[in-house]
Amino acid sequence: MHRRRFLERAGVAGAALGGVTTLAGCSTVLGDEEYDVGMVADGYRPAELSVSVGDTVVWENTSSRTHTVTAYEGGIPEAADYFASGGYDDEETAREAWHDEFGGALETGDQFSYTFSVPGRYDYVCIPHEFGGMYATVIVEE
Do the beta carbons of residue 117 and residue 80 sit within 8 Å? Predict the structure, then answer.
């Protein structure tokens, strides 16, 4: 069964408990908004997410602060494609774009998605909040 569909069905029982359901390390918000990772003022929720090869992860900025989703180039599998909000091809370009003109910015309600095709560990960061500890991990399993 598709992971989001399972979470939606299982989450119906949790709707009476505030509308947020957490299962197997994944979060989803019930209602019109659907995402896998939420961006709050000071972090990603969840900070670690496990998915399968071929899954698409959706991040949504659920806070009033501007955020990015930027892979650490040395923190992804060697065979994996680089990913960053704004569509940059490498970490240096993503960082320069942010510092020059807020490139890759995700405002409140904006989403970014990426499909993981290579198993392994993917570490990523919010550039403007990196020194505040806003980084997280996606673990992609076969």
Answer: yes
